[in-house]
Amino acid sequence: MKLAYWMYAGPAHIGTLRVASSFRNVHAIMHAPLGDDYFNVMRSMSERERDFTPVTASVVDRHVLARGSQEKVINNISRKDEEQHPDLIVLTPTCTSSILQEDLQNFVDRASLSSESDVILADVNYYRVNELQAADRTLEQIIRFYLDKAYKESTLDRSVTKTPSANIIGIFTLGFHNQHDCRELKRLLGELGIMVNQVIPEGGYLKRLKDLPKAWFNVVPYREVGLMAATFLEKDYGMPYISTTPMGISNTADFIVQIGKLVNVWAYALLEKRFNYKLYVDNQTKFVSQAAWFSKSIDCQNLAGKEAAIFGDTTHAALITKILVKEMGIRVSCSGTYCKHDAERFNEQVQGLCGEIVVTEDHTEIGDTIARIEPSAIFGTQMERHIGKRIDIPCGVISSPVHIQNFPLGYRPFLGYEGTNQIADLIYNSFNLGMEDHSPDVFGGHDTKGISTKALSTELSDINWTSEAESEPKKIPGFVRGKIRKNTELFAKQNNIPEITVDATYVAKEKSSL
Amino acid sequence: MKTFDIPTFECETGNYHTFCPISCVAWLYQKIEDSFFLVVGTKTRGYFLQNAPGVMIFAEPRYAMAELEEGDISAQLNDQKELERICLRVKRDRNPSVIIWIGTCTTEIIKMDLEGIAPKLEKQIGIPIVVARANGLDYAFTQGEDTVLAAMTHRCPEFNHHIMNQPKWDVTKLGVVEVSSNNKFFDETIKLNRCNLVLFGSLPSSVASQLNLELKRQSISVSGWLPSQKYNELPALGEGVYVCGVNPFLSRTATALMRRRKCQLIGAPFPIGPDGTRAWIEKICSVFNIKPNGLEEREDQIWKNLIDYLQITSGKSVFFMGDNLLEISLARFFIRCGMVVYEIGIPYMDRRYQAAELLLLQQTCKKMQKPMPRIVEKPDNYSQVQRMHELQPDLAITGMAHANPLEARNIDTKWSVEFTFAQIHGSVNARDVLELVTRPLRRRTDSVSDCRSLSRQTLNVQRS
Asked: Where are the transmembrane segments (chain B) (predicted)?
């Protein structure tokens, strides 16, 4: 047993559901007790999703405990099949079903006999993997399922596209700025003359999965999800992949160089020409991205030598570390990740870039570390933002777990050249701005402290509050307190009440029509 | 829409969206100031608590997970030792007056004997441990509070006649506020009856004192609340104590109070809306043989104050998808406000505990000449959405999972969970309820009403 207040990565089934609900026309059925379908709330709220989340529960209740699910799961599968005709139904086990040890595979086998949809059981072990690992695995499982199926039906077309093309693997729902990153990646590839064959899983059609091998290569923008699928495609279909994340100027350049290499292998044979991206990278770095110029500019000088602490998933934490250190000259005192399963790779990437490396799932450990080193800014998840609030250190959010704030309506990619601009803004705005940093110390602050009311003009009230009544507005949430106090006093004035008692506050509330 | 004279109950598949009952810790830990809630379960539950009650987790809450790992499930680790280790750490870090263990589905399935372990550990670490099984196998959302309060009834001190007969029995402790005589609203001298009334249900302290005040106007003093603000201020229970619920989802607590603590239950409608509050007070008065005083005028006055909202609600139709058991009381109030209720979805319907409320619903429908809504227990969300497409209600009261999709399909929604967190009890708060309900109705703007539907999905639902 573990005492836990907060967790960075969610349980395994969340990962499976994220992948399933990102594909089009896929329905997930959870084998879970009532109330475990809160994934729908997360998706509907955070992503402001307009459509019903295609996830339902096959509810585990007392009857299921006593006699097993029996026909219930199968009935639920065939019901969904009839109601919504999904292409695929993913039966999703939860912690409950892994304890019950029901033979879910058997249900799936039986249900797939009668249903028109394909039915599969998500192959994740609840107690062994977390959200991200489960998502990775489920994505690979679905791709493998449809490629195998196409192979058996011999509908698999093994030719490649005539012009260079790529698949983008690992963009999905509830991902940190994934939608914007995807748009930026498509634009980047387009400018390089590379067609996007498919984006998986977000918005992907299962019927088209069999055409995945037509692309010349795969792009896996985030380490956490997509690598398994990419390695599978490499092994079984000979498709090379790029797992470098195009985040930051040097990594984006590196990413493009790798693309050049992969493209030229085929381009020479098929098109009898070579692609050269050197000029493109130069132009973009100098003129499209402002980040290179920014790091030379006088603004950025102020940041030199300042300290920062970084925490997040492997991809974002490692790359932001790299950007801060190599591209902006900021000292990173501590860099960490909660992806314990990927710790080795993380160490390798940030080795030599930062003071200490923290790999932990315990938010108190990272909180203590930050409090000890007192950096000028933190770059982390929503949790670190709150740690920062408590100890008064600004924080930029760079990684999931996320909050509705991290699903901006405006265009905010982290990848590609536009991404470098966004990251530079985020970093620069997180640190106290140049002069602001000095002034308060030198001049003793530029705000007059100790203002009692928020209103600019003050009006002395001549009404007494009894001490009991005084405590009454304190029970009210702060943001409406002032208004209620004002209304009560107004009411007292109108009714010639010299002293406000507890009773009077209630009467005032009743009568007030605000 | 058919008109029914008596309520009809239907029962569907139970495939509906609601919160897991462990979510009750999110408000109970705030209510009981010196408590610590320990949820014994897996990551799934922890992730829910972290995501559903939202930002509150960052305020260093007095709740945590005892997260079960593979070794716990396969019984390689000793439950008692593990819990002891965790509770000792909680004691060291937070020093609470009571630790409440919330059993989850997982502890049910692996049959972890929380009730058996608790007394042993309680002796060992010297802090009371209360066990509540708030799991999704048996309960929905607010019923979690019911399980916690039912478990707490056993910890209340025994009621003793002698103490009660002493004059001036610690008035201050009762939370009864002395009336200042110079106030023109309360200048009549009030003699408080000694009627040993305990109210149960967790309410914000300001709402609780508003209800205390309402009863005091009828010379009834409330001798205590379950739960109290502090664990060691739990009210005395026993034979001769009358109890009355303030929330519709507390049927287990009511049963425990009657059967285990020999209290007398006052079955009344719930004090939601001015009509409910009046009926609630009248019922309590009738039990104590008190003639209610000025209730009618008071109710009329409240309705008069609500006139601006009533103009909005009048004639509008509502559909309750059902997830928190407040549905019957809210529907009754809304019908009284002139709305038409098409359907009341409700997770679970205790017809005995809610009898008075159901009767009031029936009377209200007759009085307002509105059809009796169909009451659907254990609803099926998918079928409900189909019905909603046919009925096109002006307002759907629903969980967050459906709210945005319904809005995109041009059905205005109100998030049902807000009713559990907002102050909705007593006449004083009637405005707040209507403020919540009318918000989506008032918001309608012309600018976007041209787009008939903003949904991307072409759903079969719309075709059928």
From this structure: none
Q: Does domain A165-273 have CATH number 3.30.1850.10?
A: no
Residue B21 touches chain A, beta carbons under 8 Å = yes
Two structure tokens written together for B137: 């196998």
The answer for residues whose C-beta is within 8 angstroms of residue A238's C-beta and 6 or more apart is none
The CATH architecture assigned to A292-441 reads 3-Layer(aba) Sandwich (3.40)
CA distance B67 to chain A (A): 5
Q: Identify whether residues B299 and B440 lie together within a single domain.
A: yes
Say whether pLDDT at B452 is over 70: no
CA-nearest of B320, B328, B372, B350 to B8 is B372
Strands ordered across the beta sheet of B129-133? A2-4, B63-67, B35-41, B98-103, B129-133
Task: Say if the Cβ atoms of B141 and A35 lie within 8 Å.
Answer: yes
Extract the tokens encoding A415: 């990848």
Separation of alpha carbons B49 and A10, rounded Å: 11
Contact yes or no for A3 and B17 at CB 8 A: no
Identify the top-confidence range among A359-363, B186-190, B341-345: B341-345
Active site residues of A: 299
Same domain, B300 and B437: yes
And the tokens for B370?
């509105």
Scanning B100-217, the segments in alpha helix (DSSP H) are 105-109, 114-125, 143-153, 161-165, 205-217
Torsion of CA B139, B145, B146, B148, to 10 degrees: 110
**Residues contacting B257, CB < 8 A, separation 6+:** B153, B200, B237, B243, B263, B265
Structural domain includes residue B392? yes
- Of B258, B288, B318, which residue constitutes the final position of a domain? B288
- Tens digit of each residue's pLDDT (9 = 90 or more) over B347-367: 999 999 999 999 999 999 999
Residue B318 belongs to what domain range?
295-448
**Helices A39-46, A12-22: crossing angle, 10 deg rounding:** 50
Length of chain A counted residue by residue:
514
Both B362 and B271 in one domain: the answer is: no
Taking all residues of chain B, what is their mean pLDDT, rounded to a whole number?
A: 86
- Band (pLDDT 50/70/90 cuts) for residue B310 is very high
Name the residue in chain A with its Cα closest to that of B142: A35
**Domain identity same for B215 and B353:** no
Within this chain, domains A292-441 and A464-513 share the same CATH topology? no
Fold of the domain spanning A12-129: Rossmann fold (3.40.50)
A226 contacts A136 by C-beta, under 8 angstroms:
yes
Q: CA nearest B44 in A: which residue?
A: A11
| Cα separation, A409 vs B247, whole angstroms | 40
Mutate to test the interface with A, among B31, B67, B180 (most CBs of A within 10 A): B180
pLDDT in tens, B404-415: 999 998 899 999
Q: Using an 8 Å Cβ cutoff, are B362 and B336 in contact?
A: no
What pTM, to 2 d.p., does this model score?
A: 0.86
- Give the chain A residue nearest B213 (alpha carbons): A503
ipTM > 0.95 (yes/no):
no
**Angle, CA A302 vertex, CA A297 and CA A303 arms, to 5°:** 95
The β-bridge partners of B318 are B341, B395
- In chain A, where are the structural domains located? 12-129, 165-273, 292-441, 464-513
- Whether B260 and B385 share a structural domain: no
With a cut of 70, say whether residue B460 has pLDDT above it: no
CATH code for position B391: 3.40.50.1980
Q: Quick one: fold of A464-513?
A: Helicase, Ruva Protein; domain 3 (1.10.8)
Asked, for residue B16, whether it belongs to a domain, the answer is: no
